[in-house]
Design a protein that fits this description.
Strand content: 35-45%
Order of helices and strands: EEHEHEEEEHEE
Number of strands: 9
Number of domains: 1
CATH class: Alpha Beta
CATH topology: Rossmann fold
Largest sheet: 7 strands, mixed
Helix content: 10-25%
Strand order of the largest sheet: 5-6-4-3-7-8-9
Amino acid sequence: MHPFETHIRNVPDFPKPGIVFKDITPLLQERFHEVIEAMAQTIDWDQIDYVVGVESRGFILGAALAELKGKGFIPVRKKGKLPPPVVSESYVLEYGTDHLEMSVNEKPARVVLIDDVLATGGTIKAAMRLCNRNHYEVKEISFLINLAFLNQLKSEGLPVRSVIEY
């Protein structure tokens, strides 16, 4: 058991019946700096120009990682939250569908995608497609938690990194 796990709260039937939500709020409250340091160690920073954080907890972790490593931060937001021009991508969640958007970019760059929890992979795959369409090469994908029993991203050869894996 990873020492961080004692600070992660399991919330059954949230946001819908059958889902067990991993609440990282207590962990961030008690050990935020250690979490950021642990995530930073999983990434090859020589290959990264920018940090891309996926709304919303990916903003918290991604912005802190960008600051720690002196990199720029790029947000991926839910539909309608960024001013135009944007590129948009729809995706399927384990509990519904949604859209992600990113500001239009013309300058090629290498990025790491950051989010808190990898579940089925729908959100992060949509974020990857956005990055690829927007001239960002995704070098790595990093999560605090990978629910590996729900996804096959590592076996698909994607550069998935995580601090905790279930």
